[in-house]
């Protein structure tokens, strides 16, 4: 059993940034208001901006006022939460600043957790600085916010840098999708119900589709996004983590080692997409002008203000080459400026081996299990049922949904931001929902092979209209196999 050892102190890098304002401070406040933070835990914020403790508390209060839902606001809880906060400005590239930071943080013998949300180019300087100031010892653990590199080589470089000061059991790589309640529910659905496991394999499942579609364009992320693109931004982490949870073997127990061992096996089993197969197994796109949310919007290049061959859409046909999944295609699709905002997994089962209804006109559809992660959270099973009637003109069969709405079923339970779970796990030292080094590197190996195929074939993104489901080639990707994307 995992023994949790809560730390006495938390250090937030990037404490004045967008992530801190929207997610980290509201999450920490939520944990504090519910009495889940360790008694006496101090939270030190650090960033380049100049702040005193008092002015940072004022800054944090403004963030809570703006980003906390109305039903979570409590004046008394906010006041006592802000008392936990202190601040130290830092030039991450200046080694002398880390000594001042260490003095501000104080004694770390009771344990320190560091949340590092900073540009990857600063990782080396930050790790070296922390180490030099005694903020990387055996009682210190570090949480790393993505992006952790942009390919295998840069990812290894970052991992080596971190490993020079922090052992793997003190390194917490964050993928916020793993903090989502519905994502964790995939484990409960698969391994807490006996009727799924016998058909959760190539004998029972025809194909699996994972879609993460966004309606937004670049927003404030132009500089990062144009250097990354959809494949690195979404597939290399969130989508492959979802694929692993769907495809992995049953872990022996619910803990960080067992679950991550099984996920790593899936990543190692992903079939490499060779350059010759890249045009057949992948589609890239870039949004052009169109209509989104009832408004006319610009294309990617106009938004960016310069020419670019960065993909804002990618669809991939993937295979997991092991006994369980031999021959089952996993279709992955993600893009910006698409029809709707949606994250979901659709599992299409194989048709029944023989239809007894066909001679009476009854048409069967294969069963589909839909796991919707956002914006709504539900699990839906599409089943065949007979329409009421005397059947004199033949039997009428119709697909009907069996719905488990997690929003409705657990209406009385507080809906938590993914970062609440992840920050609490970091503070308590539970690595189950964090990503291990071998997972990250196996993911990058697969992603790098796809990018190499795009270069070898000089594949440029195909334009698609904003407000659509992406380029028509993405439809052809599945329809060649007689499969249709789950777009309802």
UniProtKB/TrEMBL annotation:
Active site: 238
Pfam family, one: G6PD_C
Catalytically driven reaction(s): D-glucose 6-phosphate + NADP(+) = 6-phospho-D-glucono-1,5-lactone + NADPH + H(+)
Similarity comment: Belongs to the glucose-6-phosphate dehydrogenase family.
UniProt KW NADP keyword: yes
Listed EC numbers: 1.1.1.49
SUPFAM superfamilies tied to this protein: Glyceraldehyde-3-phosphate dehydrogenase-like, C-terminal domain (SSF55347), NAD(P)-binding Rossmann-fold domains (SSF51735)
Biological role: Catalyzes the oxidation of glucose 6-phosphate to 6-phosphogluconolactone.
EC primary class: oxidoreductase
Binding sites annotated in the UniProt record for NADP(+): 48, 146
HAMAP family, A to Z: G6PD (MF_00966)
Protein's UniProt name: Glucose-6-phosphate 1-dehydrogenase
Species whose genome carries this gene: Sphingomonas psychrolutea
Positions contributing to substrate binding: 176, 180, 214, 233, 336
Keywords recorded for this protein, A-Z: Carbohydrate metabolism, Glucose metabolism, NADP, Oxidoreductase
């Amino acid at each position: 059993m995992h023994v949790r050892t809560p730390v006495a102190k938390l250090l937030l890098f990037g404490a004045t940034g967008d992530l801190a304002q929207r997610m980290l401070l509201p999450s920490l406040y939520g944990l504090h208001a519910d009495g889940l933070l360790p008694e006496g835990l101090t939270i030190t914020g650090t960033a380049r901006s100049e702040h005193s403790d008092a002015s940072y508390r004022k800054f944090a209060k403004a963030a809570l006022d703006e980003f906390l839902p109305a039903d979570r606001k409590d004046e008394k809880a906010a006041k006592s939460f802000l008392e936990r906060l202190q601040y130290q400005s830092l030039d991450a590239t200046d080694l002398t600043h880390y000594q001042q930071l260490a003095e501000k943080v104080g004694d770390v013998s009771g344990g320190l957790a560091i949340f590092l949300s900073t540009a990857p180019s600063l990782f080396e300087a930050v790790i070296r600085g922390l180490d030099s100031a005694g903020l990387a010892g055996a009682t210190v653990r570090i949480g790393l916010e993505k992006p952790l590199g942009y390919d295998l080589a840069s990812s290894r470089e970052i991992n080596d840098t971190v490993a020079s000061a922090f052992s793997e059991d003190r390194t917490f790589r964050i993928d916020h999708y793993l903090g989502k309640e519905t994502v964790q529910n995939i484990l409960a659905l698969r391994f807490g119900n006996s009727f799924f496991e016998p058909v959760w394999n190539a004998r029972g499942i025809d194909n699996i589709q994972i879609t993460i579609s966004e309606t937004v364009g670049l927003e404030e992320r132009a500089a990062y996004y144009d250097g990354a693109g959809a494949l690195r931004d979404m597939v290399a982490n969130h989508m492959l983590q979802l694929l692993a949870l769907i495809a992995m073997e049953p872990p022996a127990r619910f803990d960080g080692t067992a679950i991550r061992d099984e996920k790593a096996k899936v990543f190692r089993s992903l079939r490499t997409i060779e350059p010759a197969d890249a045009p057949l197994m992948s589609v890239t796109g870039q949004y052009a002008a169109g209509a989104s949310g009832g408004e006319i919007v610009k294309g990617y290049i106009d938004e960016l203000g310069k020419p670019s061959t960065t993909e804002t859409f990618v669809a991939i046909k993937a295979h997991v080459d092991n006994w369980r999944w031999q021959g089952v295609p996993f279709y992955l699709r993600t893009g910006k400026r698409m029809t709707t905002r949606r994250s979901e997994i659709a599992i299409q089962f194989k048709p029944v081996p023989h239809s007894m209804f066909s001679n009476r006109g009854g048409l069967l559809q294969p069963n589909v299990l839909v796991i919707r992660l956002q914006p709504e959270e539900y699990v839906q099973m599409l089943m065949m049922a007979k329409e009421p009637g005397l059947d004199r003109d033949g039997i009428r069969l119709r697909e009907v949904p069996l719905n488990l709405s997690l929003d409705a079923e657990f209406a009385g339970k507080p809906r938590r931001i993914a970062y609440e779970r992840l920050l609490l796990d970091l503070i308590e030292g539970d690595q189950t929902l964090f990503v291990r080094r071998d997972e990250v590197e196996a993911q990058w190996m697969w992603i790098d092979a796809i990018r190499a195929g795009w270069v070898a074939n000089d594949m440029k993104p195909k334009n698609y209209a904003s407000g659509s489901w992406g380029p028509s080639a993405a439809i052809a990707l599945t329809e060649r196999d007689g499969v249709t994307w789950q777009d309802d």
